[in-house]
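FAQ

Q: What does a record look like?
A: Structure on top, sequence underneath. For example:
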């Protein structure tokens, strides 16, 4: 075997997976077909639950240093052609990281390298095959073709995943005809920025900031903190688009002319990209020794969530793969990757497909739907609910069996903890990505039960302001595997804890 795990693709999902596997003591090999790290950004930032997870890993400082700006609560978020305004909420439902994708990939790549991952760039995986013992990748490298074998292979190779195709995993869904073209540019002298953020364009007149619908499509623009303009057009093109193929300035200007019916002068153009929308989900996230994560597993027809969901796939998968490779995985553990992350992807598809219906209605009925939706979102509860759906924070992984505590399957809250050694927090305890039994109510019965697993589960006793449970069993991906209700008697709590420990962390 050349490696325990081969990861195909060094995008956010592949590099996050490589780092998480490294943290769990597994040395993966990453194969990336591009000879150099990406320079042109696809995403200009990301948001959602992964921001919390990065903090739980102690990585947010590095992310903030790379971005030169602090992570901040998202003041708003687009949703199907309308804007969700979170600015008046005391605790907004999501955080946003304004870090362009190339810089994110640099941070994740450095971390993966420090944790022992091998990353080969310029190595294109042409196909994969598997048998009972191993999986093999056929690779075209700079020095010619070669083969590598490993116990598992994860396709993090994006929307057109060759791994998915090679493994014969169907990718059903819909490709929408919308093509979005995006440019970042400085403001030319001939165009005036108005006090309200709008533009005064010679020969065209005034355009307000935000989105303007025309017979040709949708034109939108906003201002970046650098003072540059971010300009976007959306048009229907039944021929579709290739997100990875470069876009020329002429193509962008032609699109503006079709949508606005006039030219828009641009200053220095520093970014040009194009993306289409698909709603697709791999039928299976696992086929034997081959797994899928990130865009290879799902395509959502709305912007701003791909990185969050892809990196969360990686975090969910890494510790389970490491458990199998470490030889202590209970039976069925790896199957829960599909069960949990396919479910999460389906929830994301639900809200992004609803966005398609909202934004594509061009007739008065479509306008009425958007107006009504906007009205409903003046209320805090639906606004929060949509925010949580976008961020992926309302997902509760399916709990095994009835009678589970309401926290089971949810993301562990970052409690402030007081211990004999001083103050700490759930976030601090998750830096090492080891499972944790957190006793919050002085429960020696539960600590004693967990002691049989102490080679793989850390046991901590702490006090916190308002404990949400007597004890929490937290998985490496910061999700709660089990919780003891307040005052739950030892007679029911200890067998339930033993069962949960065996289910997730194997026999002691
Ligand atoms: C213009 C644009 C703007 C976007 N904006 C946002 C945003 O603001 N926020 C957000 O969250 N998301 C955004 N997205 C989506 C986001 O970029 C993707 O969801 C994200 O890149 C997916 O990460 P990934 O690691 O799964 O796949 P990718 O980033 O696609 O990485 C896949 C990697 O695999 C490599 N690869 C492919 N085939 C092979 C092979 N055969 N052998 C070896 N290597 C291979 C590729 O070269 C690539 O490096 C945007 C996308 C586009 C196109």
């Amino acid at each position: 075997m050349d490696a325990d795990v081969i990861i195909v693709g060094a995008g956010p999902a592949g590099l996050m997976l490589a780092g998480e596997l490294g943290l769990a003591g597994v040395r993966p090999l990453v194969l990336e077909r591009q000879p150099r790290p990406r320079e042109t950004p696809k995403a200009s930032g990301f948001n959602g639950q992964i921001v919390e997870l990065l903090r739980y890993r102690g990585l947010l400082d590095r992310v903030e240093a790379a971005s030169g700006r602090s992570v901040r609560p998202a003041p708003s978020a687009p949703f199907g052609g309308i804007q969700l305004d979170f600015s008046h909420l005391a605790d907004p439902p999501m955080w946003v990281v304004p870090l362009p994708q190339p810089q994110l990939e640099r941070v994740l790549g450095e971390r993966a390298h420090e944790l022992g991952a091998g990353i080969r760039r310029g190595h294109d995986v042409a196909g994969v095959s598997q048998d009972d013992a191993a999986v093999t990748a056929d690779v075209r490298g700079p020095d010619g073709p070669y083969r590598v074998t490993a116990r598992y292979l994860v396709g993090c190779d994006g929307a057109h995943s060759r791994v998915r195709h090679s493994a014969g995993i169907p990718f059903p869904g819909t490709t929408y005809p919308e093509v979005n073209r995006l440019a970042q540019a400085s403001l030319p002298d001939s165009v005036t920025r108005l006090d309200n953020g709008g533009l005064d364009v010679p020969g065209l007149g005034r355009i307000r900031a935000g989105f303007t619908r025309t017979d040709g499509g949708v034109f939108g623009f906003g201002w970046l903190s650098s003072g540059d303009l971010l300009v976007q057009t959306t048009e229907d093109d039944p021929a579709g688009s290739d997100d990875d193929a470069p876009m020329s300035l002429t193509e962008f200007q032609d699109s503006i002319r079709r949508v606005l019916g006039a030219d828009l002068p641009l200053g220095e153009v520093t970014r040009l990209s194009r993306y289409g929308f698909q709603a697709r989900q791999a039928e299976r996230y696992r086929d034997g020794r081959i797994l899928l994560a990130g865009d290879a597993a799902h395509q959502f027809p709305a912007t701003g969530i791909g990185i969050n969901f892809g990196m969360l796939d990686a975090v969910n998968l890494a510790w389970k793969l490491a458990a199998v490779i470490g030889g202590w995985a209970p039976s069925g553990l790896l199957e829960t990757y599909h069960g949990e992350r396919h479910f999460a992807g389906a929830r994301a598809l639900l809200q992004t497909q609803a966005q398609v219906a909202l934004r594509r209605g061009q007739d008065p009925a479509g306008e009425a739907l958007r107006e009504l939706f906007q009205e409903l979102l003046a209320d805090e509860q639906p606004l929060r609910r949509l925010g949580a759906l976008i961020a992926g924070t309302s997902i509760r992984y399916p709990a095994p069996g009835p009678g589970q505590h309401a926290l089971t399957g949810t993301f562990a809250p970052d409690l402030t903890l007081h211990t004999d050694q001083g103050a700490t927090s759930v976030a601090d305890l998750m830096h090492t990505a080891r499972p944790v039994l957190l006793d919050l109510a002085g429960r020696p019965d539960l600590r004693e039960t967990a002691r049989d697993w102490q080679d793989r589960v850390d046991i901590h006793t702490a006090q916190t302001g308002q404990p949400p449970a007597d004890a929490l069993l937290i998985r490496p991906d910061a999700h709660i595997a089990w919780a003891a209700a307040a005052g739950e008697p030892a007679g029911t709590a200890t067998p339930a804890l033993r069962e949960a420990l065996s289910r997730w962390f194997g026999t002691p």
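Q: Is there anything notable about this one?
A: Residues 8-14, 31-34, 42-46, 101, 124-125, 156-158, 162, 182, 243, 273, 275, 294-295, 303-308, 310 surround flavin-adenine dinucleotide (CB under 6 Å).
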